[in-house]
Amino acid sequence: MTAPDLVLPPCDFTVFGGTGDLALRKLLPGLYEQERRRQLPAGTRIIGVSRSPLDDAGYRDLVTRALFEHVAEDHLEAGALHRLTARLHHLTLDVGSAEGWDRLHGLLKDRPDRPAGEEATRIHYLAVASGLFGPICDRLDDLGLVTPQCRVVLEKPIGADLASSRQVNDAVGRVFEERQIFRIDHYLGKESVQNLLVTRFANVFLEPIWNSRWVDHVQITVAETLGVGDRGGYYDQAGALRDMVQNHLLQLLCLVAMEPPSYVGGDAHDAVRDEKLKVLRALAPLTGDDVDRATVRGQYTTYGTELGHPSTTETFVALRAEVQNWRWSGVPFYLRTGKRLARQESTIEVVFKEPPHAMFPDSEGVTTPNRLTIRMQPDEGMQLHLTAKHPGPGGIRLHPASLDLSWAEAFDERSPEPYERLLRDVMRGVPTLFMRRDEVEAAWGWVEPILARWHEAGVEPVRYHPGTEGPAAAERLLARDGRTWQEGTR
What we know:
The protein has 490 residues and is α/β, with parallel strands linked by helices. It has two domains: 3-183, Rossmann fold (3-Layer(aba) Sandwich); 188-479, Dihydrodipicolinate Reductase, domain 2. It is built from 15 helices and 16 strands.
Protein backbone atom coordinates (compact mmCIF):
# COMPACT_ATOMS: atom_id res chain seq x y z
CA MET A 1 0.00 0.00 0.00
CA THR A 2 1.50 3.34 -0.96
CA ALA A 3 1.72 6.11 1.55
CA PRO A 4 -1.17 8.30 0.26
CA ASP A 5 -3.48 5.24 0.22
CA LEU A 6 -2.93 4.48 3.90
CA VAL A 7 -5.97 6.18 5.42
CA LEU A 8 -5.90 6.66 9.18
CA PRO A 9 -8.99 7.30 11.29
CA PRO A 10 -9.54 10.85 12.62
CA CYS A 11 -8.57 11.07 16.26
CA ASP A 12 -7.76 13.31 19.18
CA PHE A 13 -4.11 12.65 19.98
CA THR A 14 -3.34 13.89 23.52
CA VAL A 15 0.32 13.95 24.54
CA PHE A 16 0.89 14.14 28.29
CA GLY A 17 4.35 15.65 28.57
CA GLY A 18 3.71 17.56 25.36
CA THR A 19 6.62 19.99 25.84
CA GLY A 20 9.12 17.35 26.93
CA ASP A 21 12.17 16.14 25.04
CA LEU A 22 10.51 12.96 23.76
CA ALA A 23 7.50 14.81 22.39
CA LEU A 24 9.52 17.52 20.66
CA ARG A 25 12.33 15.28 19.41
CA LYS A 26 10.41 12.15 18.36
CA LEU A 27 6.61 12.22 18.63
CA LEU A 28 5.79 15.48 16.89
CA PRO A 29 8.37 14.97 14.12
CA GLY A 30 6.80 11.53 13.60
CA LEU A 31 3.34 13.05 13.33
CA TYR A 32 4.73 15.73 11.01
CA GLU A 33 6.04 13.08 8.61
CA GLN A 34 2.57 11.54 8.49
CA GLU A 35 1.18 14.99 7.76
CA ARG A 36 3.74 15.50 5.02
CA ARG A 37 2.65 12.22 3.44
CA ARG A 38 -0.98 13.31 3.83
CA GLN A 39 -1.81 10.38 6.10
CA LEU A 40 -3.46 12.44 8.83
CA PRO A 41 -7.14 12.81 8.00
CA ALA A 42 -9.26 15.91 8.46
CA GLY A 43 -10.54 16.28 11.99
CA THR A 44 -7.41 14.96 13.70
CA ARG A 45 -6.23 17.14 16.60
CA ILE A 46 -2.97 17.02 18.56
CA ILE A 47 -3.24 18.27 22.14
CA GLY A 48 -0.09 18.85 24.15
CA VAL A 49 -0.58 18.71 27.91
CA SER A 50 2.14 20.08 30.18
CA ARG A 51 2.78 22.46 33.07
CA SER A 52 4.27 25.05 30.69
CA PRO A 53 2.25 28.31 30.63
CA LEU A 54 1.64 28.23 26.88
CA ASP A 55 -1.43 29.06 24.85
CA ASP A 56 -2.07 27.43 21.47
CA ALA A 57 0.00 30.01 19.60
CA GLY A 58 2.95 29.61 21.94
CA TYR A 59 2.81 25.83 21.62
CA ARG A 60 2.70 26.06 17.84
CA ASP A 61 5.80 28.25 17.87
CA LEU A 62 7.60 25.81 20.18
CA VAL A 63 6.73 22.81 18.01
CA THR A 64 7.70 24.63 14.81
CA ARG A 65 11.16 25.36 16.23
CA ALA A 66 11.49 21.71 17.25
CA LEU A 67 10.53 20.52 13.77
CA PHE A 68 13.15 22.75 12.17
CA GLU A 69 15.71 21.20 14.52
CA HIS A 70 14.71 17.52 14.31
CA VAL A 71 13.26 17.04 10.81
CA ALA A 72 15.54 16.69 7.78
CA GLU A 73 15.80 19.97 5.91
CA ASP A 74 14.64 18.47 2.62
CA HIS A 75 11.47 17.22 4.35
CA LEU A 76 10.41 20.61 5.66
CA GLU A 77 7.49 21.78 3.56
CA ALA A 78 5.54 24.97 4.24
CA GLY A 79 2.20 23.35 3.45
CA ALA A 80 2.76 20.38 5.75
CA LEU A 81 4.02 22.64 8.55
CA HIS A 82 0.92 24.82 8.24
CA ARG A 83 -1.43 21.83 8.24
CA LEU A 84 0.22 20.25 11.29
CA THR A 85 0.42 23.42 13.39
CA ALA A 86 -3.26 24.10 12.66
CA ARG A 87 -4.02 20.83 14.45
CA LEU A 88 -2.03 21.76 17.58
CA HIS A 89 -3.51 22.83 20.91
CA HIS A 90 -1.93 23.20 24.32
CA LEU A 91 -3.42 22.75 27.77
CA THR A 92 -1.54 23.90 30.86
CA LEU A 93 -2.15 21.20 33.45
CA ASP A 94 -0.26 19.72 36.38
CA VAL A 95 -1.28 16.07 36.06
CA GLY A 96 -0.37 15.48 39.68
CA SER A 97 -3.04 17.96 40.77
CA ALA A 98 -6.82 17.63 40.80
CA GLU A 99 -7.22 21.10 39.31
CA GLY A 100 -7.67 21.93 35.65
CA TRP A 101 -8.88 18.59 34.34
CA ASP A 102 -12.25 20.05 33.47
CA ARG A 103 -10.53 22.08 30.74
CA LEU A 104 -9.23 18.87 29.15
CA HIS A 105 -12.72 17.41 29.39
CA GLY A 106 -14.14 20.42 27.60
CA LEU A 107 -11.50 20.37 24.89
CA LEU A 108 -11.94 16.68 24.12
CA LYS A 109 -15.72 16.77 24.30
CA ASP A 110 -16.04 19.96 22.24
CA ARG A 111 -16.03 18.64 18.69
CA PRO A 112 -18.28 20.90 16.61
CA ASP A 113 -17.07 19.13 13.47
CA ARG A 114 -18.71 15.85 14.56
CA PRO A 115 -22.37 14.88 14.72
CA ALA A 116 -23.99 14.91 18.15
CA GLY A 117 -23.29 11.71 20.06
CA GLU A 118 -20.41 10.62 17.80
CA GLU A 119 -17.19 10.20 19.80
CA ALA A 120 -13.77 10.78 18.25
CA THR A 121 -11.16 8.07 18.64
CA ARG A 122 -8.94 9.22 21.50
CA ILE A 123 -5.27 8.33 21.90
CA HIS A 124 -3.65 9.25 25.20
CA TYR A 125 0.15 9.18 24.96
CA LEU A 126 1.78 9.11 28.41
CA ALA A 127 5.26 10.59 27.83
CA VAL A 128 5.71 11.09 31.58
CA ALA A 129 7.14 9.14 34.52
CA SER A 130 5.49 5.74 34.99
CA GLY A 131 4.41 6.71 38.49
CA LEU A 132 1.90 9.07 36.87
CA PHE A 133 0.40 6.48 34.52
CA GLY A 134 -2.19 5.25 37.01
CA PRO A 135 -3.32 8.67 38.29
CA ILE A 136 -3.69 10.00 34.73
CA CYS A 137 -5.74 6.98 33.67
CA ASP A 138 -7.96 7.35 36.75
CA ARG A 139 -8.59 11.04 35.95
CA LEU A 140 -9.47 10.22 32.35
CA ASP A 141 -11.90 7.58 33.55
CA ASP A 142 -13.50 9.91 36.09
CA LEU A 143 -14.07 12.46 33.32
CA GLY A 144 -15.76 9.93 31.08
CA LEU A 145 -12.98 10.23 28.50
CA VAL A 146 -12.33 6.48 28.25
CA THR A 147 -14.45 4.67 25.69
CA PRO A 148 -14.01 1.33 23.88
CA GLN A 149 -12.40 3.26 21.01
CA CYS A 150 -9.74 4.86 23.25
CA ARG A 151 -6.10 3.78 23.31
CA VAL A 152 -3.33 4.57 25.76
CA VAL A 153 0.38 4.52 24.90
CA LEU A 154 2.91 3.82 27.65
CA GLU A 155 6.53 4.91 27.35
CA LYS A 156 9.25 2.91 29.07
CA PRO A 157 10.33 2.35 31.71
CA ILE A 158 7.27 0.52 32.96
CA GLY A 159 8.41 0.19 36.55
CA ALA A 160 11.89 -0.43 37.92
CA ASP A 161 11.43 -4.13 38.73
CA LEU A 162 8.79 -6.86 38.49
CA ALA A 163 6.76 -5.67 41.48
CA SER A 164 6.60 -2.03 40.40
CA SER A 165 5.90 -3.08 36.80
CA ARG A 166 2.91 -5.07 38.02
CA GLN A 167 1.71 -2.09 40.03
CA VAL A 168 1.85 0.16 36.97
CA ASN A 169 0.15 -2.42 34.77
CA ASP A 170 -2.53 -3.02 37.40
CA ALA A 171 -3.22 0.70 37.68
CA VAL A 172 -3.56 1.18 33.93
CA GLY A 173 -5.43 -2.12 33.55
CA ARG A 174 -8.16 -1.00 35.96
CA VAL A 175 -9.16 1.62 33.38
CA PHE A 176 -8.10 0.24 29.99
CA GLU A 177 -8.49 -3.24 28.58
CA GLU A 178 -5.30 -4.96 27.46
CA ARG A 179 -6.30 -4.55 23.80
CA GLN A 180 -6.31 -0.76 24.35
CA ILE A 181 -2.84 -0.57 25.93
CA PHE A 182 0.16 0.04 23.64
CA ARG A 183 3.51 -0.36 25.43
CA ILE A 184 6.04 1.16 23.07
CA ASP A 185 9.57 -0.04 22.34
CA HIS A 186 10.98 2.08 19.54
CA TYR A 187 13.45 -0.65 18.52
CA LEU A 188 10.50 -2.68 17.24
CA GLY A 189 9.69 0.15 14.83
CA LYS A 190 13.08 0.07 13.07
CA GLU A 191 12.98 -0.96 9.41
CA SER A 192 15.72 -3.56 9.89
CA VAL A 193 13.84 -5.16 12.79
CA GLN A 194 10.71 -5.36 10.64
CA ASN A 195 12.78 -6.92 7.88
CA LEU A 196 14.10 -9.52 10.31
CA LEU A 197 10.66 -11.13 10.34
CA VAL A 198 10.48 -11.05 6.55
CA THR A 199 14.05 -12.31 6.17
CA ARG A 200 13.35 -15.27 8.41
CA PHE A 201 9.88 -16.27 7.29
CA ALA A 202 9.61 -15.20 3.64
CA ASN A 203 12.86 -16.82 2.47
CA VAL A 204 12.77 -20.58 2.47
CA PHE A 205 16.54 -21.16 2.29
CA LEU A 206 17.15 -19.75 5.80
CA GLU A 207 14.68 -21.77 7.86
CA PRO A 208 16.46 -25.17 7.52
CA ILE A 209 19.69 -23.71 8.97
CA TRP A 210 18.13 -21.41 11.59
CA ASN A 211 18.72 -23.79 14.49
CA SER A 212 21.32 -25.37 16.76
CA ARG A 213 22.52 -27.80 14.11
CA TRP A 214 23.94 -24.99 11.96
CA VAL A 215 24.12 -21.86 14.14
CA ASP A 216 27.16 -21.62 16.41
CA HIS A 217 26.05 -18.55 18.36
CA VAL A 218 24.25 -15.21 18.11
CA GLN A 219 25.56 -11.77 19.10
CA ILE A 220 23.32 -8.75 19.70
CA THR A 221 25.07 -5.40 20.16
CA VAL A 222 23.64 -1.95 20.83
CA ALA A 223 26.60 0.42 21.22
CA GLU A 224 26.46 4.17 21.78
CA THR A 225 29.21 6.76 21.52
CA LEU A 226 27.40 9.32 23.69
CA GLY A 227 27.28 9.44 27.46
CA VAL A 228 24.21 9.97 29.62
CA GLY A 229 23.86 13.65 28.69
CA ASP A 230 20.84 15.30 30.26
CA ARG A 231 19.33 11.89 31.18
CA GLY A 232 21.73 11.49 34.09
CA GLY A 233 19.05 11.74 36.77
CA TYR A 234 16.96 8.95 35.26
CA TYR A 235 19.85 6.85 34.04
CA ASP A 236 21.63 6.74 37.38
CA GLN A 237 18.53 5.20 38.91
CA ALA A 238 18.07 2.73 36.06
CA GLY A 239 21.41 1.63 34.61
CA ALA A 240 22.07 -0.23 31.37
CA LEU A 241 20.42 -3.51 32.42
CA ARG A 242 17.06 -1.88 33.12
CA ASP A 243 17.32 0.79 30.43
CA MET A 244 18.39 -1.40 27.51
CA VAL A 245 18.57 -5.13 28.20
CA GLN A 246 15.19 -5.66 29.86
CA ASN A 247 13.36 -4.26 26.85
CA HIS A 248 15.33 -3.52 23.66
CA LEU A 249 17.87 -6.34 23.64
CA LEU A 250 15.52 -9.04 24.91
CA GLN A 251 12.97 -8.03 22.28
CA LEU A 252 15.62 -8.43 19.57
CA LEU A 253 16.59 -11.82 21.00
CA CYS A 254 12.95 -12.89 20.82
CA LEU A 255 12.65 -11.94 17.15
CA VAL A 256 15.79 -13.94 16.31
CA ALA A 257 14.82 -17.00 18.34
CA MET A 258 11.02 -17.18 18.00
CA GLU A 259 9.22 -19.97 16.18
CA PRO A 260 7.33 -19.10 12.98
CA PRO A 261 3.95 -17.62 13.88
CA SER A 262 0.97 -19.02 12.01
CA TYR A 263 0.32 -15.64 10.43
CA VAL A 264 1.73 -12.10 10.50
CA GLY A 265 -0.60 -9.19 9.78
CA GLY A 266 -4.31 -8.92 9.24
CA ASP A 267 -6.24 -9.61 12.43
CA ALA A 268 -3.60 -11.98 13.86
CA HIS A 269 -2.20 -9.29 16.15
CA ASP A 270 -1.14 -11.67 18.92
CA ALA A 271 0.56 -14.34 16.78
CA VAL A 272 3.99 -12.69 16.92
CA ARG A 273 3.64 -11.69 20.55
CA ASP A 274 2.66 -15.23 21.54
CA GLU A 275 5.87 -16.60 20.01
CA LYS A 276 8.04 -13.92 21.62
CA LEU A 277 6.57 -14.79 25.01
CA LYS A 278 7.53 -18.43 24.54
CA VAL A 279 11.16 -17.38 24.02
CA LEU A 280 11.21 -15.24 27.16
CA ARG A 281 9.79 -18.14 29.17
CA ALA A 282 12.41 -20.48 27.70
CA LEU A 283 15.40 -18.35 28.76
CA ALA A 284 17.62 -20.26 31.18
CA PRO A 285 17.46 -18.42 34.53
CA LEU A 286 20.60 -16.63 35.68
CA THR A 287 20.90 -16.74 39.46
CA GLY A 288 23.63 -16.83 42.09
CA ASP A 289 27.03 -17.92 40.78
CA ASP A 290 25.64 -18.16 37.23
CA VAL A 291 25.29 -14.37 37.25
CA ASP A 292 28.95 -13.99 38.18
CA ARG A 293 30.06 -16.23 35.32
CA ALA A 294 27.64 -15.06 32.63
CA THR A 295 27.42 -11.27 33.10
CA VAL A 296 29.77 -8.30 32.92
CA ARG A 297 28.89 -5.00 34.57
CA GLY A 298 30.88 -1.96 33.46
CA GLN A 299 31.07 1.82 33.80
CA TYR A 300 33.02 4.34 31.74
CA THR A 301 35.65 6.19 33.73
CA THR A 302 34.22 9.71 33.37
CA TYR A 303 30.65 8.77 34.31
CA GLY A 304 30.87 10.08 37.89
CA THR A 305 32.41 13.34 36.68
CA GLU A 306 29.54 13.86 34.23
CA LEU A 307 27.02 13.18 37.00
CA GLY A 308 28.81 15.34 39.53
CA HIS A 309 29.02 12.58 42.13
CA PRO A 310 30.37 9.02 42.49
CA SER A 311 28.08 6.23 41.35
CA THR A 312 28.02 2.44 41.08
CA THR A 313 25.45 2.41 38.27
CA GLU A 314 26.46 0.36 35.22
CA THR A 315 26.76 2.01 31.81
CA PHE A 316 27.75 -1.26 30.11
CA VAL A 317 26.36 -4.79 30.26
CA ALA A 318 27.45 -7.95 28.49
CA LEU A 319 25.86 -11.30 29.20
CA ARG A 320 25.50 -14.85 27.96
CA ALA A 321 21.98 -16.24 27.63
CA GLU A 322 20.57 -19.56 26.48
CA VAL A 323 17.14 -20.42 25.10
CA GLN A 324 16.20 -23.82 26.43
CA ASN A 325 14.12 -25.32 23.68
CA TRP A 326 14.47 -27.83 20.84
CA ARG A 327 15.58 -25.30 18.22
CA TRP A 328 18.28 -23.50 20.22
CA SER A 329 19.62 -26.06 22.69
CA GLY A 330 23.30 -25.36 23.36
CA VAL A 331 23.45 -22.15 21.29
CA PRO A 332 24.65 -19.16 23.35
CA PHE A 333 23.18 -15.71 22.77
CA TYR A 334 25.65 -12.96 23.68
CA LEU A 335 24.12 -9.56 24.45
CA ARG A 336 26.00 -6.34 25.07
CA THR A 337 25.15 -2.67 25.30
CA GLY A 338 26.99 0.36 26.57
CA LYS A 339 27.56 4.08 26.43
CA ARG A 340 30.69 5.98 25.41
CA LEU A 341 31.92 3.13 23.23
CA ALA A 342 34.06 3.28 20.11
CA ARG A 343 31.18 3.30 17.63
CA GLN A 344 27.48 3.93 17.31
CA GLU A 345 26.19 0.59 16.16
CA SER A 346 23.21 -1.73 16.57
CA THR A 347 23.67 -5.15 15.03
CA ILE A 348 22.55 -8.75 15.22
CA GLU A 349 25.20 -11.30 14.20
CA VAL A 350 24.08 -14.86 13.46
CA VAL A 351 27.34 -16.83 13.32
CA PHE A 352 27.14 -20.22 11.64
CA LYS A 353 29.25 -23.29 12.36
CA GLU A 354 32.32 -24.28 10.41
CA PRO A 355 31.87 -26.70 7.48
CA PRO A 356 31.88 -30.30 8.74
CA HIS A 357 34.83 -31.23 6.50
CA ALA A 358 37.85 -29.26 5.23
CA MET A 359 37.55 -29.58 1.46
CA PHE A 360 40.57 -27.43 0.56
CA PRO A 361 43.48 -28.54 2.75
CA ASP A 362 46.13 -27.26 0.33
CA SER A 363 44.59 -23.85 -0.27
CA GLU A 364 46.10 -20.53 0.68
CA GLY A 365 44.32 -17.94 2.79
CA VAL A 366 41.95 -18.46 5.66
CA THR A 367 38.32 -19.29 6.10
CA THR A 368 36.02 -17.51 8.53
CA PRO A 369 32.63 -18.69 9.73
CA ASN A 370 29.67 -17.67 7.64
CA ARG A 371 27.76 -14.84 9.28
CA LEU A 372 24.52 -13.01 8.69
CA THR A 373 24.81 -9.42 9.94
CA ILE A 374 21.59 -7.47 10.44
CA ARG A 375 22.34 -3.75 10.80
CA MET A 376 19.85 -1.58 12.63
CA GLN A 377 22.17 1.41 12.69
CA PRO A 378 23.95 2.95 10.98
CA ASP A 379 22.89 2.23 7.38
CA GLU A 380 20.09 -0.25 7.92
CA GLY A 381 20.50 -3.45 5.97
CA MET A 382 22.09 -6.90 5.94
CA GLN A 383 25.36 -8.57 5.02
CA LEU A 384 25.96 -12.25 4.33
CA HIS A 385 29.62 -13.08 4.94
CA LEU A 386 30.96 -15.96 2.85
CA THR A 387 34.27 -17.55 1.86
CA ALA A 388 35.15 -17.18 -1.84
CA LYS A 389 38.03 -18.02 -4.16
CA HIS A 390 40.30 -15.07 -4.85
CA PRO A 391 40.37 -14.50 -8.64
CA GLY A 392 43.50 -15.52 -10.54
CA PRO A 393 45.42 -18.51 -11.91
CA GLY A 394 47.23 -21.10 -9.88
CA GLY A 395 46.03 -22.73 -6.72
CA ILE A 396 42.95 -21.93 -4.70
CA ARG A 397 43.30 -18.87 -2.54
CA LEU A 398 40.46 -18.45 -0.06
CA HIS A 399 39.25 -14.98 0.83
CA PRO A 400 36.33 -13.58 2.88
CA ALA A 401 33.65 -11.88 0.78
CA SER A 402 30.28 -10.32 1.56
CA LEU A 403 26.91 -9.91 -0.08
CA ASP A 404 25.65 -6.51 1.03
CA LEU A 405 22.07 -5.25 1.09
CA SER A 406 21.44 -1.66 2.12
CA TRP A 407 17.79 -0.69 2.41
CA ALA A 408 18.60 2.88 1.33
CA GLU A 409 20.31 1.67 -1.85
CA ALA A 410 17.95 -1.19 -2.67
CA PHE A 411 14.70 0.76 -2.33
CA ASP A 412 14.04 4.20 -3.70
CA GLU A 413 12.00 5.18 -0.68
CA ARG A 414 12.77 6.72 2.67
CA SER A 415 12.57 4.36 5.64
CA PRO A 416 10.14 5.70 8.24
CA GLU A 417 11.57 6.62 11.61
CA PRO A 418 10.57 4.13 14.35
CA TYR A 419 8.19 6.51 16.14
CA GLU A 420 6.57 7.49 12.87
CA ARG A 421 5.74 3.85 12.13
CA LEU A 422 4.64 3.04 15.67
CA LEU A 423 2.41 6.11 16.02
CA ARG A 424 0.72 5.15 12.77
CA ASP A 425 0.07 1.65 14.14
CA VAL A 426 -1.42 3.12 17.31
CA MET A 427 -3.80 5.22 15.23
CA ARG A 428 -4.73 2.15 13.19
CA GLY A 429 -5.19 0.08 16.35
CA VAL A 430 -2.57 -2.51 15.33
CA PRO A 431 -0.71 -3.79 18.44
CA THR A 432 1.68 -6.32 16.83
CA LEU A 433 4.82 -4.21 17.40
CA PHE A 434 3.94 -3.33 20.99
CA MET A 435 4.71 -5.29 24.12
CA ARG A 436 1.96 -7.17 25.88
CA ARG A 437 1.80 -7.19 29.66
CA ASP A 438 2.92 -10.81 29.97
CA GLU A 439 5.95 -10.06 27.78
CA VAL A 440 7.01 -7.14 29.97
CA GLU A 441 6.63 -9.14 33.15
CA ALA A 442 8.44 -12.20 31.75
CA ALA A 443 11.37 -9.95 30.80
CA TRP A 444 11.47 -8.41 34.27
CA GLY A 445 11.25 -11.90 35.78
CA TRP A 446 14.42 -12.92 33.93
CA VAL A 447 16.38 -9.70 34.58
CA GLU A 448 15.49 -9.27 38.25
CA PRO A 449 17.69 -12.10 39.64
CA ILE A 450 20.68 -10.50 37.90
CA LEU A 451 19.96 -7.19 39.60
CA ALA A 452 19.48 -8.98 42.92
CA ARG A 453 22.80 -10.83 42.66
CA TRP A 454 24.70 -7.65 41.78
CA HIS A 455 23.17 -5.94 44.79
CA GLU A 456 23.57 -8.80 47.28
CA ALA A 457 27.16 -9.60 46.24
CA GLY A 458 28.14 -5.94 46.02
CA VAL A 459 29.28 -6.32 42.40
CA GLU A 460 31.04 -3.09 41.46
CA PRO A 461 31.13 -2.18 37.75
CA VAL A 462 34.52 -2.66 36.11
CA ARG A 463 35.86 0.52 34.55
CA TYR A 464 36.53 1.15 30.89
CA HIS A 465 37.82 4.19 29.04
CA PRO A 466 35.47 6.23 26.81
CA GLY A 467 35.97 5.53 23.11
CA THR A 468 36.94 1.87 23.60
CA GLU A 469 35.05 -1.39 23.03
CA GLY A 470 34.16 -1.61 26.73
CA PRO A 471 35.72 -3.53 29.62
CA ALA A 472 38.16 -6.33 28.90
CA ALA A 473 35.95 -8.66 30.94
CA ALA A 474 33.45 -8.61 28.05
CA GLU A 475 36.13 -10.04 25.76
CA ARG A 476 36.91 -12.74 28.31
CA LEU A 477 33.23 -13.66 28.51
CA LEU A 478 33.39 -14.90 24.91
CA ALA A 479 37.01 -16.05 25.05
CA ARG A 480 36.06 -18.67 27.65
CA ASP A 481 33.86 -20.21 24.95
CA GLY A 482 36.53 -19.85 22.26
CA ARG A 483 34.71 -16.96 20.54
CA THR A 484 35.22 -13.24 19.93
CA TRP A 485 32.95 -10.26 19.41
CA GLN A 486 32.40 -9.26 15.80
CA GLU A 487 33.58 -5.67 15.39
CA GLY A 488 33.31 -3.19 12.54
CA THR A 489 31.03 -5.06 10.17
CA ARG A 490 31.21 -2.34 7.52
